[in-house]
Amino acid sequence: MLQQILQTMTVDPDLLAELSDEQRAILFVKIREEQVRRYEEYEKNLQDEKIPRKPKKGRKTVDFLLGRDGHEWVWVMGDHRNDKSVEEMIELEMHEKALKEAEREIEEIRRREEAEISKRLEMEKYRLETEQKQKEEELRRQREEAELYASLKQAREAARKLEEEKQKAEEEEKIRVEQLRQKACRSCQDLDDMEHRFTEDKKRSLERLVKNKNRRSSEIFTEYMCKREEMEKIAEQNIQEVESNWQEQEKKAKKAEEEVKELARRARIEYKNSLRQGMNALNAVSAFSGNGTNRKPPVPPKSEELRKSVAKVINKRPPRPPNKQAVVEWFLEEERPKGVGTERKTGKVASWFHGVISRLEAENYLLNKTLGSYLVRVSERVWGYTISYRAEDRCKHFLIDTSDLGYQFFGANQLMHRSLAELINFHKSNPITVTGGELLRTPVGQVKDPPDYQDLMRPRITESTAL
Question: Which of 68, 109, 120, 369 has its CA 20 to 30 A from that of 103?
């Protein structure tokens, strides 16, 4: 599958959706390497054959005029008799620049004069309008004075009548004031008695208010003290709770730190073991490389069988399955005879095998499962299988590339396995990726009847029943 992608340099979106993050990174790196290789090969061919490169479509190109000698036609300014000298060209340029500057200044002066004229016109217009308003105001005032003079006689007659009525009202007021003074003298004794009673009532009211104030202040103080004690108890409880939580968090942090140290120690041991195994392998290779020399073994040639298998797959099948029925037919024709999805000893369907189900259905199977749970499903989008794995925070999906040589994870330099079951058993003790450490621990089987692999296993069940 990787060879097919590198040959066409196109990736189907459905295939890209089936890949995990690690497999996507590997695919992009390989595509980039193939692009660089093709570009270097193309550049080398251009240099060997000396073929001019054609400009790409949509880009501008520059063509040079050729002279009689076949080379690019070159014109040096100043060498021709009709060319102007550098001094003349500079002088002409300065004249043009001065002309533009003068035009700019004249335009500026014209704008300024127009602005001043407009301003004077506005001021003159405002002055005329002000004078007109003043004249109108003067005429209005003169009309009001004339009207006022006409009514002045009537006002004098009315004033005389008002004066007579005023004198009469003053005499009546004097009589009424004298009567009120006499009445006030009679009620003076009553007022003194009322003032004495009012003073006594006010004194008693003040005493009552002082008592109520003292009583209420003591009640409020008691309530404040009770609330303070409650707040102190709540604060003490919160402090104790925070202290206990902090101690618990500290224990968890120490435990996590110890786990990290343990993981680092195991990683160092694993790294040392891998180095030791690598050195042993190099020593073994050097021992069989002839006369004990340290020559490197020759690079094996590319497998002709692998190229034939890739060409066969490309010619036989389309890049992606058109529908689910095509996937079922592919499985029955090519994978079913190999015994994929069944146990070799019993012939029964493996507990981890599922049929043609989608990515979402696989995640629903693994939704409430423990860490390390897994299943193998036949992909509906590509020709192959996918391991759906329950990680700590999400579900991961790893695409398995199939060929006549065996089964391996999608990408280059992957370990090839003779069967799908062998690949599953291998990764029960060896992680799929070094960073993730995914170990296949608990297989997830069927939860519905009929099972989802019924279309893939029906022919064999029918055959056994007929026998």
Answer: 120
